[in-house]
Every structure is written in C-alpha cells, then in structure tokens.
Amino acid sequence: MGAPHNKKRYGEVWSQDRISLSLLELQFLREFVILSGGWAWHFLSPEGHTEYKHAHDHKDIDVFVDPKNVAEVMYVLHQRDFKKVWTRYDHLPSEENFRRYEKTVETDTGKSIRITIDFFVKSAVPSRFVKEWNVVEPSFLLSLYSNIHSSDKCWAVQASLRLLDKNIDPLDRIELVTIPKE
Fold first, then answer.
1. 103 vs 151: CA distance, rounded Å
2. Domain with 134 in it: what CATH number?
3. What CA–CA distance (Å, rounded) separates 78 from 11?
4. What's the structural domain count of the chain?
5. Minimal CA–CA distance to 144: which of 71, 21, 29, 36?
6. Residue 147 belongs to some domain of the structure
C-alpha cells in the first residue's frame, strides 16, 4: 500500500512533457492494451483536468495485454526503442506475467524523461472503452491495489471508492481530480 501523502505538496502537477511524451508512446499501443493504474484514472477523469501528482500516478504506464497481443506489443516496443528492464518482481509467482520496458526521451528543452511501461499479460480483464481508450473497469481497478498497484492513496482511488460505495460511476467525476479538504 502507498505511503500517506504529504499534504503540503498537494497542488504539484506532472510536467506537460511527461504527459505528452507518454501519450505519444501510448498511441502506438492503443489497439493492443488495456490501460490500468494512473493512466486508467487519467481517462476516467473529466477531460481537461489539471494533472495533479496526487490525483493519479504518471510515473509509469501500467497496461494489461491479452496473451494473443503480446507479440504485437513486443514488436511495437522494440520498434519504438524500448528496452527490457529487469526488476525484483520478474521472478515472483503471480497470476500475471509481468514485464517492464523503458526508454529515455529528450524534450524540446533538452531535458530527459524516462518512460516506463509495466505490462501484465492477462486475458479477460474487465474493461470499458472510454475516450477512445480501453481502460480497466473501475471496480476491478480498485481491486488491483492489493497486489499490482501501490498508489492507493491517490485522490482518484479514494474518490472512486466513495463513489462506488454509493453506486455512482466514477467516470468523468470531478472528485477524481479534486484536492481533498480533509
């Protein structure tokens, strides 16, 4: 589980370069993946929202890949110059076959940004089509915070838990990107 947030840092935003460059790389994978984690919350949030760091995590890109699409995803990642990165999780037993790929991209200002894609091979992931992207169904996404995702303190996760407890679909709800008052 994620560490408690430092509330003094609420209001910090992700760099637009990170968002734009990550979205560019995701475009090449769009038809083969289901977005999870912070990028699922990104597309479930209202369009045009402020990219607060504590609303959802953009440090990496979490995706599910159906076994039938693994070869195509691997091909695209190779073509886009992503390299396999070994992690401590690679040899742990799990239901999902986990893989991590990274590449470093230089921005227009000369700054380097590392784009990390964590993908999990799994079939039959509950998902929905939102804003032209396949994203993990919110109720299933919330269940992943016990084993796959760790940022369970992000505002989108906490707001979605409250909304779903009231049988309210979190899609496009402002609560997903609103700084908590408590």
1. 23
2. 3.30.460
3. 36
4. 1
5. 36
6. yes
Residue 77 · residue 178 · CB < 8 Å: no
Q: Go through the chain and tell me how many residues it has.
A: 182
Closest Cα to residue 132, out of 47, 14, 16? 47
Pairing of β 112-121 and β 61-65: parallel
Q: Which H/E stretch holds residue 42? A: helix 37-44
CA distance 128 to 130: 6
Residue pointed to by tokens 């401590």: 88
Asked whether the predicted pLDDT for residue 127 surpasses 50, the reply is yes
User: Would you say residue 1 lies in a domain?
Assistant: no
Of 143, 142, 151, 154, nearest to 179 by C-alpha is 154
Residue 160 lies in a domain: yes
> How many Å apart are CA 176 and CA 182, to the nearest integer?
15
Query: 78 is written with which tokens?
Result: 């190779």
Closest CA to 160 of 175, 180, 182: 175
* Rounded Cα gap, residues 155 and 158, in angstroms: 5
CB 108 within 8 A of CB 16: no
Residue 182, in any domain of the structure: no
Domain that holds residue 110: 7-177
Instruction: Note the pLDDT tens digit of each residue in 1-53.
Output: 345 556 677 777 888 999 999 999 999 999 999 999 999 999 999 999 998 88
